[in-house]
Amino acid sequence: MPAAPRYDRPDPGEHDEYYTRYIAKVPDGDLLAMLEAQGRETAGVLRGVPEARGDFAYAPGKWTLKEVVGHVSDAERVFSYRALRIARGDQTPLASFDQETWTPQSGATARTLADLVDELEAVRRATLALLAHLPAEAPLRRGTASGKGVSVRALAWIIAGHERHHLGIIRQRYLS
Q1: Domain presence at residue 145
Q2: Residue 114 maps to a domain
Q3: How many domains is the chain partitioned into structurally?
Q4: Is residue 7 domain-resident?
Q5: Which residue of 24, 26, 42, 138 has the smallest Cβ count within 10 Å?
């Protein structure tokens, strides 16, 4: 049986400096176990929010809670896709994405918060299935995304840190 992939904390040279703020939010430990627990935590928090609160934005020009949840799903899909391409040895530079363009076009505001949480959980299950079954050497593979070098394991940590970042904002600005 092949060795399972390890997702040790990435070195600073494995990702753009911008993502350091997300990676720093993730404690040391078994990243896949953290991603699984984090997914349950985030879904649990969001499932406790009244449906009407999903349309709340804490300030003019800010996303609604439903848009934030949709954004987290979208971003995780993008980071996972990048991890897949790089893990498979694809050296094609991967384009960036514009969250400010994507979010209003997502249709999140027309959906229920519960439906968006279901989708977020499905995205996390897909991410975990991908990361858990990559070849052992895949986390160290590197490619280019948004014009910067990045490793598969850095992308995995970015996924965790990005969600942690947004869950903090949700707790502080949407639920307080």
Answers
A1: yes
A2: yes
A3: 1
A4: no
A5: 24
Confidence band, pLDDT 50/70/90 cuts, at residue 1: low
Tokens of 109: 């505001």
Question: Residue 67's closest CA among 123, 127, 113, 122?
Answer: 113
Write the CATH number for 52.
1.20.120.450
CA distance 55 to 50: 10
Helices vs. strands in the chain: H and E counts, helices first? 6, 2
pTM (predicted TM-score): 0.97
> What CA–CA distance (Å, rounded) separates 152 from 171?
29
CB under 8 Å to 106, separation ≥6 — which residues?
67, 70, 71, 74
- Greatest CA separation for the chain: 54
Span 113-117, mean pLDDT? 98
Instruction: Indicate the pLDDT class of residue 3, thresholds 50, 70 and 90.
Output: confident
Place of tokens 């959906």: 111
In a domain, 26, yes or no: yes
pLDDT tens, position by position, 50-79: 999 999 999 999 999 999 999 999 999 999
